[in-house]
């Protein structure tokens, strides 16, 4: 049984997860080919580069949005920060700030929801035209030519985010509108995660406890403590690890991926490791490399 162990000692965002899987043997060309089935490829370009974070070589994955004033500015979720926004996307725009060092821009894919100026990793800068309602994303995925297993995984992740957002805002799932998570980069992160998990033929996913960081972030509804509301809602029942780093380490997108894919949480299981991958976040911390480490083995 091929097992994936996610060692998220510096948190997790959608773009960090994609970067780590690509570094562990994921195929970027196949990823792009599969993503083309969504028919939104005129809205973005994929960018992969190898960088060094605190002495650790890692893959930095970004979704570069094509229809915005400064397309380079948008750096994704990796910062982790942004990831969130995705999450809530509906309401928030934030996702990005994340850890991703990206500085600005916005990942991630992503989430939290909220405006998050976070400073996480997220750096992507989402624009309104990129935001989609939950029902629109479901239609986009269901109408695509993606494999049914990939569709099921993707829809489960978006449902997890939508239900969290709906509960927080007191609205039914069908009325949830994602601001960040509905942005193109977040969609690519989530669908891309499902594509690579199936491409790598992963049968079981195990994960370390999840550090969420600490401090406060600004979301659409004001200043909130880390983790953002949607992230915390999705991490119910999942072990959270204390962290002294003042940043949003885990974005809504990262939390949703973990909540849906992971079967158990704890230390690394007995495993004959075949591949190791590192996915870089945008931000740089003095105390530790801002990377996500994954191991694949039998």
UniProtKB/TrEMBL annotation:
- The UniProt regions of compositional bias labelled Basic residues, in chain numbering, are 113-131
Q: List, alphabetically, the Pfam families matched.
A: Ni_insertion
Phosphoprotein in keyword set:
no
Q: Where is the composition biased (Basic and acidic residues)?
A: 78-112
For this UniProt record, the keywords arranged alphabetically read as follows: Nickel
Region Disordered: list its residue ranges.
78-131
Q: What is this protein called?
A: LarC family nickel insertion protein
The organism is: Paenibacillus solisilvae
